[in-house]
Amino acid sequence: MKVKHAVVLAFLTVFSTLRAQKVSYTPDVVLGHRSYTYMHNINYQLNDRLKINNLTLFDTEYTRDKDNIFFIRNTLSYSFSKKFNVNGAFGIKNPGAFFSLYAQYRMTGPSYSFSYSIGTTYQKGFSLEQSISLEYTPRLKENLQGYFSVLAIGNIDNSGYPRGLQFIRLGIKQDKIMYGIASNFDQFNNAEKTLENIGVFVKYNF
Hints:
Structural class: mainly beta
Radius of gyration: 17 Å
CATH class: Mainly Beta
Number of domains: 1
CATH superfamily: monomeric porin ompg
Number of strands: 13
Distance between the termini: 31 Å
Helix content: under 10%
Strand content: over 45%
CATH topology: Porin
């Protein structure tokens, strides 16, 4: 039932945001050996300093629902400069609701972007959360670029390492579409439980 509610919330967020202006929508779909993964980022620029972001992730196994993963985060971001911003977020994920406050440093260039975030998340207790995101798109020839991206997120609290994930993409970028090989790795409860999903991905920048 929680997953159904999460799906409804995600689609309501998408449709309400897409009616606004200054919006970007980037879906990312993975067909892996274990599961099907849908992830998107929706960004809406309120003004020069304020931005709203919705990040939604659903990872659904083909044959059973035991290890389904869902994550929905809505973030309000305030930029002090082009490289530094602070963020407040709330959302739901396995196993329930959460709230986050974190700072982010970001660098961008013609063929790369890099960001590092650090802050605190509350979900049945506080944890230190850090994330790194790297995207590299070297030019291969006219209208064709390579595509490499890494997203890594980890939480640390008094119990150790309750949650972590790493998403890796390697492929080709043509204009607004990206496709290639994908690998998703998830860890739960000090890595007592791990999940892997390796396959192909398609990503598009609307």
